[in-house]
Amino acid sequence: MITQFNSVSELRFLHGYINQPLNNNNDRGIIRMNFDESECLWRSIKATEGKILEIGRFFGGSTVLIVAAAGPDRKVFSADIVSGHSPIAQEYFDNKEFSKSLEIVTGDSANIDTGELGLLFIDGDHTYEGVSRDITLHWPNLKVGGLCVFHDAVPNDGLKHANQINHCPGVTQACKELVDAGKGEEVDTAGSVLVLKKIK
Length: 200
Known about the structure:
CATH class: Alpha Beta
Distance between the termini: 42 Å
CATH superfamily: Vaccinia Virus protein VP39
Number of domains: 1
């Protein structure tokens, strides 16, 4: 089993494609993100230091990416109210070399004492109320200059082939309020992913 990765392209097995990514919702695989979104998350992790909190793990593919990008010495907390993962992700979680800095939490992220965070990845409850709660709980722990990555925040063409929208309006609204309040500024985006740098 390979436990060290130098680029997000080496994690293409999480998406399920073999040659070239489609960059739409047909290549989400167990990571549940389009490839360009995964690249954006990888960039954000590499651009920051300090602990990481992921809210919303689902199949566990994004957690594998986060740990791979963070490296073995950077603490990663991953919270989800559901305990099941894909067999591929579980294999990585069970590998002590790969997951030695990973803390899997099944339950409410409100119960995690993370201390100061360098990066926050919000991909849990996609309602306005749910995202706003996650922000209220964890934005104070994100250090000034740290990054918050939101999934499903930006309107995009990921589901154009199916004639559907590919973002969640509640997430979009919560992000807009952060920016309008002067608490965060947009520094990166890809697909439905929006990255805000904490200003205050």
